[in-house]
Amino acid sequence: MINSIIIKNYKGIKELNLAFNDSRTVIVGNNGVGKSTIIEALQLALGDNEYKTDLNQFSFHKSCWTISDRRISNLPKIEIEIYFSSDVDMPDFRGKNNILLDEFSGMRFSFEFDEAYEETYSKESAHNFIPCEYYHIVRTWFSGQPYKRKLLPFRLFVIDSSNTFFNSRPRQFMSHLLEDDTDDFKAQMLSCLAGMRAIFEGNINVKSLNDILTNRAQEIKKGLSVSIDLTSKNSYSSILTPFVDGVPFENAGLGEQCIVKTLLSLGTPEDIKPRVLFIEEPETHLSHTMMYHLMNLLNKRDNAQLVITTHSSFVANRMDLSNIAVLHKDEYGIVKSKRLIMDLEKDDYKYFFKSTDYATLRLILCKAAILVEGPTDEMVCHYYMRKIGREVFHNGIELMAVDGVSFKHFIALAKDLKIKVAIIRDRDKGTIEDYNRLYFGEEPLEDMKVFLDKDQPSIEQSFVYINEKELQKLSDTVRCKKIKDDTPEKLIEFMVNNKTEWAYRLLEGDESLDVPQHIKDAFNWLDGK
Predict the structure, then answer these.
(1) 479 domain residue, yes or no
(2) Residues of the chain predicted below pLDDT 50
(3) Are 422 and 395 in contact (CB under 8 A)?
């Protein structure tokens, strides 16, 4: 079906070349990277917009807004190309009329200057704006032949429960869903509509209303009446309104609409054309339970090509990390994708698939990360951040609490993405060398480093002894009451038995209390100090 898409100069995307998997692709990226723009560009190129797109200067990437050279050949254009899979090989589709200048099957969209206006434009007074009033849309197959939407080898469906148009378009969605190229379907639909018309016109109240209309208009035009229009191209969307449990679809909850639209769009193996289904942020408006059911459903259905954009680690994990395309955009608007299929072992994919509660996208999308053991260490790092006046996400650094078993899986993921990672953990009975071998093997990694207290085996002991001169202040803070003549041993015992409580109390307590050196070293290393 769709093998890839190339976008140039459309909205926030200066340039993008994104490949899709045959079965499913999960697109992730930080806000503003262009996930929604990709779906919009696809709909625009195929002429499949559920709302009219008004192309203007701001439809172009901002780098195109100012025209320094008014020559026609140098005026900017929006270009979108959709490349079909190798099994789609009709002569009309195949050719070299594409950006890559090679033989492929697909279609091309451009919003470009219409040369018919060249003389008019040349006589205009000079200005530095894109002359969109002289632009036109051109759609062709890669063969150079004019694009015909009815000849598309697939049917495209877009489910976007976060879109402002989502709740106002149920009839158009149903009309699009019911469209089909088979004569049998059309004959059945027209027969149903004709039957509806006959029943409507035969109703005694309708007859009475039509008699009144005829009498009032007889001097001008005889035969005026009301009926059901079967000639309109939009007859399906004008007449048919979907219902769920007897309630009009547009009055159902947004989560329920998302589920129903997705179920209907998946189709069946008997469909005349295969389906391409884009689902934007399926987690919107869905509870965790409904999200779980939806993911299970999508995993079981293989008769449609699925492309999902998401901010949810649950969705990413459940759809298998091997299907993820990570988008990053540079300052010039060039968007590049990274696939997690190079060094990551299949066991790591399976681990995150089963452990869907892990916030893997936090790691995937960050610039650097600190992995810590349990909530206590996380609170310690929060405390340190506050003490030195930095936010937890300073310079794109993520702070994640990970249990001991999970460390190696997160390290494998970070290694594949080339993310700088500091690991802060208890020393227990090991050494730096022991943990290096455990996590990295025999070869140390330049961008990953373990930090632990070489003198103290646990974080509780590290905190007590780094603040030994302020022991009473530390005791008052973590116990929330005064204990006369508290000792390091008693305080450590209390902190071990109340890990989460003491961490939160420390976070809210006296800022003058010190932080163990290995935690400071970890932040300094990430900052390049």
Answers:
(1) yes
(2) 50-51, 164-168, 181
(3) no
